[in-house]
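Support request, please re-run this one:
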Amino acid sequence: MLNHLPSIISKLVLVALVLYFVLGMGYGVDMSSILLLSALVTGLAYLVGDLLILPAATKATHEMTGNLIAAAADFGLVFLTLWLAGRYFIGDNIDWVTASLISAAIIGVCEIIFHRLIRGITIKQVQT
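Re-run finished. Output below.
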């Protein structure tokens, strides 16, 4: 688990920054809600996208295709998580579909780069 800590922290910072700019600056969501959503998105996306889908997709296809598959899965996961959790924890006072789409799109693009950075750590650990 400690080997994953730098990747998890990096992903958390990335997600929190994107959510701050989109939700905080764009929609006026408070920082505590942004941090809660960031932690939720990071945990789910790291477990599902980075530890399960990315290694499996990379093993089944080739590196770039696996990366794109995992990034697409992260997009869907981030969108659904923000849309549902945002409405639940924060309420219907903002347009969650649009906010979630924008956030998920930015995070999805960033995930392509993030996957390339962590591939040596995560994929090797999961395959062993």
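The CA atoms of residues 20 and 43 lie 17 Å apart. The chain has one domain: 2-127.
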